[in-house]
Amino acid sequence: MHARESKSLQAPRADLHSVTTFHHRPIPALRAQIERIWGWQEPHALALPLVMPGFGAELFFHHGEPFRSLVGGAERRLERGHLLCVRGAPLRLLEQPSTAFTAVRIRAGALGRFTSIPLRELKDTQVGLGEIWGRAGVELANRVAETKLESDRVHLIEEFLRRRLAETRCDRLVERALELIYRGSDTLTIAALASQCGLGRRQFERRIGEYCGQPAVELRCLARFYHVARRLAVQPALGALEAALAAGYYDQAHFIREFKRFAGITPEAFRRTLAGTTHFYNPVGAALTK
After folding, report:
1. DSSP type of residue 120
2. Exposed, middle or buried by CB within 10 Å (0-12, 13-18, 19+), for 126?
3. What distances in angstroms separate CA 247 from CA 28, 187, 229, one per listed residue?
4. pLDDT confidence bin for 72, thresholds 50/70/90
């Protein structure tokens, strides 16, 4: 993200355009499943980014105007609280008159710790929290929207997710497999990933496909794409081919072909899109409070 970060949840720092952001380390009970809780507040019109396919999942809690998406030519206003789990194709978000949200970045493979709904039913949808957690999800989104202090919003979200973590059963093997795919997409074969999970390749692929709705080999390609797209976003001076080779692509032709398959545009077009705009890739060096 290109906005300046705040140093405190209670007293965020604003830049000349009154933009504030924060990055918060979740409570210890959630750190294995949640990378960070972060947020953005922008009182002016903001052209939102094209949300590229990724490997984790993101919960958004809007205490300002919710996002509007454009899918199949139809505009849709998202719920106050919703999940984005973009997997197969980019999601276009429309320009906001103002922006104010708190978001939860769920680690690769960890979504099953918070809901028993399989990933295959959530991917590439913009699901309201009521569809995931019923009335409790709707009430949480409303309470977060009505709460004034960012620290109080974070506390509400953390306590809710901590309770879900204690109540929800998940397929630990699938969780482990998805984490391995995410971290080993540059070097590990599907056979090696299956072996690390103690499964034969066929059984491994079946378990992954049933939960994710995508083949293991497709998820490996997706993880590789995510790693290189993020590097291009947060390290704009980095050469595209250098980033691609580091992510495990064989050569430039392989990189461009796979990148275009997930992004719908070439790597160079992606970089031009990023120039002078914002994105939702959190920087590596973003300071985490607590």
Report:
1. G
2. buried
3. 30, 9, 10
4. confident
